[in-house]
Each structure stands twice: as structure tokens, then as C-alpha cells.
Amino acid sequence: MVANLFKLPRIPLTMLFMHMVFSTSAHAALEVFEEAYELNSTQIIRWPLRAGDSLIIRPCIGCSTRALRVSAETRYATGFNTAPVSLRDLLRVKSKLHDTENYLIAVFFLPDKLLVTHIVLQTNLK
Question: What is the pTM for the complete model shown?
């Protein structure tokens, strides 16, 4: 009986230790690789014209502008689940749109590098 009293505290301590180790490793695995903004056309201050240019945005009312760089690896689309298009084609589609409330721009980027991974111009929101 005395031997069992000494073993009981080990079990909760072991479980506490395992919980601490596994929860720490689980949190360490949750890193932010990519962030995104959902914007309307009034929040785009300047569109990039080529790789190496910056997309200048205003993420929210009252926020300062933010520059996100596009590269040769940046991908563009005119809708989710659609085939990729070139930046030139994306800008051509954007130039034909007049109703600013009828489309949105999703910008995905790497926060540590401020590098845009892809831009989606969603036009079929009706």
C-alpha cells in the first residue's frame, strides 16, 4: 500500500509532462506561411505592371498603405478554381470592370518577405 502511494504522483506528473511536450510541439508546427487580404478595387492604390513591381494596397479604412512585391513566380487568376492567366490578361480583365462593388481581389502573400504568391480577381459575385 505504501508503495502505491509513491507511484500515484508519478502518473499525474508524467501526464502533465507529456501534455506540455506534445502541446508545445503541436504549436510549433503551426506556422504562418501565407496571409491574405480580401480587397475591393478602391483599396488597390497601384497595380503591378511586371515582375518586380509592387502592388500598393490600403488594407482598411484609416490604415496606411502597404507595398507587396510581385515576382515571376506570382500566379494570377480571374476567379477561384479557374485556370491561371498572365498579369497582362488579369489587368485587361480588370480594366473592363466598372462596378467596383461587383468584384473583389484576393491577395495571398508571404508575410515575412512581403512577396505576393497569387492574386485572384473574383468577378462573378452576382
Answer: 0.73
The grid coordinates listed for 47 are 497595380
Answer for the pair 114, 57: CB distance below 8 angstroms, yes or no.
no
pLDDT (0 to 100) of residue 41: 87
Closest CA to 54 of 41, 39, 66, 38: 66
pLDDT at 32: 66
- Residue found by looking up cell 500500500 in the block: 1
113 vs 74: CA distance, rounded Å: 13
Same domain, 18 and 41: no
Boundaries of domain holding 2: 1-31
Which residue reads 497595380 in cell numbers? 47
Instruction: Give the number of domains in the chain.
Output: 2
Roughly how many angstroms between the first and final C-alpha of the chain, as a whole number? 74
